[in-house]
Amino acid sequence: MEQFISRVKSSLAERLELAQSFGKIGEWEFDFLSGSAIWSKEVYNFYEVDLDLPPVLFHESDEYYRPEEKTRLFSLIERLRLTRTAQQDVFQVHLPNGKVKWHRSLLIPEVDVNGQLVHMHGLLQDITDEMMARTRLKEEQVFFQSVLDSIPADIAVYSEDQRYLYINETAVADAEARKWIVNKNDFDYFTMRGLPLDRAYKRQAQFRSMLEGKEKKFFEEHSVKNGKDIYKLRQFAPIWDKQTGKLRYVIGYGVDITDWKLSEQRLVSSGIAMEASTDGIAILGADETYQYLNNAHISMFGYDAEEDLKGKTWRAIYPKTEVERIEKILLPLLMQEGYWQGETVGKKKDGTLFHQEITLSALPNGGMICICRDISKRRERDEEMQKLALVSNRSNNIILILDNQRRVDWVNDSFLRLTGRTKEEVLGTRFPSETPGWSNDNLPPWLQFGMHQHQHMKGELAYYTATGEEIWLQGEINPVYDDNGEFRYSACILNDITLIKAAEKNALTALHKERALSELKSRFVSLASHEFRTPLAGILSSTDIIREYADTIEDEAAARILNHTDRIAEEVLRMTEIMNNVLLLGKMDAGKIPFRPGSGDIHEFIQTHLRRVSTAFRERVRFNGPGRPVHTRFDPNLLDHILNNLLSNAAKYSPAELDIFVDLLPDESDGIQIVVRDKGIGIPAKELPFLYESFFRGSNTNDFHGTGLGLPLVKQFVDLHGWSIRIQSEENNGTDVTIIIPTES
To answer: Which end of the chain, N or C, is less packed with Cβ atoms under 10 Å?
Structure first.
């Protein structure tokens, strides 16, 4: 039995030693009391030390452990001392022969009955191969990482649920963001960056389509960065497990195609521009056949489609004589210079000939580009202009054409005849400072403004002929712009108005004389009115004395005296009124009527006026107002005269038993109206337009006293206020006089 146990132990020891050797695991013991150590064979082999040498405390030697490794080893032993628990870590060893090895060590403490640390048992595993493999793997990872980051394309690896497993530096430059994005999706990334989610939704749709179709998916993606358009061509490529058929991961690839896309857009735009061009554009090959024609070129020659001319030579659309000229003269010049521009004669499909302006450019492959424009209408306009120039030269009007630098480009013969100048003196001069007869000193503002601002202006200006004679011209300056809105030249058209200006001067002199005569008349009227007032006042005073005397007499003679004095007083008052009106009219003509408007309640003013004159009009006036204050601006003196005149007319020309109505009403335009209405004799319809003429009286007023000055004065007082007046009347059916006071008053 003992032999069996001994044999088993021996076998176990052999198998244990074999296992340790296979696993590269060695044992060692360290006694804290004696400071001695025991190594197994595997430990000696690891350090490549002769088995006959005693164990050395290699952690205390600088030959095997670098300072940082020694520090970590001491820390591990210290943790074991403090915690009395097993500790393990990985260490790097530098052997004297230059080799570098790694070992994983497990330190197991042993304590005595008193809890004192007395012994340390250790296991050392040689993991050099594993660490070298890891190092190589890491180096390969770094290599492939640098390769992926150096590729000028976005590269990413996705899980089946479209979460990032990897993304390269080209796609996301920020290293922290690349770490953060792992296990995140596009929605997380776009939200974190504050970007719109539309691209995330589009990528999601393409990803799902790729999974459903189980094949690569290509799509274009557009974004804007720093205000610039970015275009990328992206691809989702699924990687399947060949054995299980399950999806392992998805590789995403994106390449910047912005330059290509913009070039494509420019090419498309150029094509659109060529098709939209009103000029005919064609490209011919080395064999002189048409390879491309735009619509303008096709229609210019009367054809319907590109196929009608494509593949044919240019000779098909030019007459025989023009073909010979092009072959002998134009094409040699084109081959020599690489460019030619000029006029040719083309032939339409129906045989019609037309003039065209053509530009030819040679191509490196022997072909050429042809740009042509139909100038038939322009030639017609040129011919028309020649005719107009002939007419202009025979016109009495002066015509000058100024270029865009204001230099005289053309003048007609009328200018030369009228001014006595020659073309040599005028043409090429800068208008007006260099043009004879004009200068900036006598140039009117309208002409200066029209020239500098390129706007149509007209007015009068003086000119001095070659003999120094001053003439007056009435003219206008007209700017001419091209189809692009660019200013090209100005046409200045002038008429001689010297005789008209002389007539105006004579008329102005006559007007001054007339005004002086009118002022003399006004002074005379004023003087006469004042001179009449004094004797009239004396006559009225004498009638009062005669009345007092007649009151002392009691016979029939007293009654006759009083009757005559009443008539005398009435005529004196009428003469006084006439003088007052004449005096007012004179002041109006001289502009001396004082106008002092102020803000006030016109409703209260009319009521006060009517109360004051009620006795004079025998209580006949009926007032209709809003019953509340109505504020506006008016001159009390002038409004008093207006109301008094209108009421006097209403009372005079209507029966004494009929009422007179004064209304204060709102106007349709939010203003107010004053209306004076009567039921008197009215005014004939044909005489209404003449009511505001001085001294005009209606044909039906011969039996009534009057001067015909009242309404003209009312009209002028109304105009001074900025108001308006309207008269509506029907003969034998009364008159309505309406004064309209607008809102702004």
So the answer is: N
**Would you tell me how many other CB atoms lie within 10 Å of the CB of residue 675?**
18
SS3 of residue 52 by DSSP:
coil
Q: Is the pLDDT of residue 420 over 80?
A: yes
**Over 90: is that where the pLDDT of 483 sits?**
no
**What confidence tens digit (pLDDT) does each residue in 605-655 have?**
999 988 887 776 767 889 999 889 999 999 998 888 899 888 888 888 888
Q: Do residues 111 and 83 touch, judged by C-beta distance below 8 A?
A: no
Number of Cβ within a 10 Å radius of residue 179:
10
Q: 101 phi and psi, to 5 degrees?
A: -130, 165
Question: Is 621 inside any structural domain?
Answer: yes
Amino acid 735: pLDDT? 92
In this structure, the answer to whether residues 400 and 532 fall within a common structural domain is no
pLDDT, one tens digit per residue, over 234-276 is 999 999 998 888 999 999 999 998 888 888 878 777 778 788 7
Rg (C-alpha) for the chain, rounded Å, is: 59
Instruction: With H, G, I as helix, E, B as strand and everything else as coil, classify residue 487.
Output: strand
CATH number at residue 693: 3.30.565.10
pLDDT at 514 over 70: no
> Do residues 688 and 616 share a domain?
yes
Phi and psi based region of residue 708 (left: phi greater than 0; alpha: psi -120 to 50; beta: remaining): left
Q: Which structure tokens are listed for 526?
A: 């004023």
pLDDT band at 289 (very low <50, low <70, confident <90, very high): very high
HSE (CB half, 13 Å, CA atoms) of 646? 31
For 648-703, strand residue ranges (E) read 660-666, 672-678
Residue 294 domain flag:
yes
Tokens of 411: 């003048």
Model confidence pLDDT, tens digit, residues 440-468: 666 677 666 666 677 777 877 777 888 88
Lookup result for tokens 């003087």: 527
Structure tokens at 431: 């208008």
CATH classification at residue 383: 3.30.450.20
Same domain, 666 and 527: no
Among 238, 262, 286, give the residue marking a domain's end: 262
Same domain as 598, residue 712: yes
Q: List pLDDT tens digits, range 1-44.
A: 555 555 545 555 555 555 555 668 999 998 888 888 889 889 89
Do residues 400 and 526 share a domain? no
Residue 658 domain flag: yes
Instruction: Fill in the DSSP letter of residue 429.
Output: P
User: Does 305 map to a domain?
Assistant: yes
Range of the domain at 413: 379-496
Average pLDDT for 168-196: 91
Burial of residue 313 (number of CB atoms within 10 Å: 0-12, 13-18, 19+): middle
DSSP string, 58-97: GGG-TTTS-HHHHHHHHHHHHHHHHH-S-EEEEEEEE-TT
Tell me how far apart the alpha carbons of residues 189 and 181 are, in angstroms, rounded to a whole number. 7
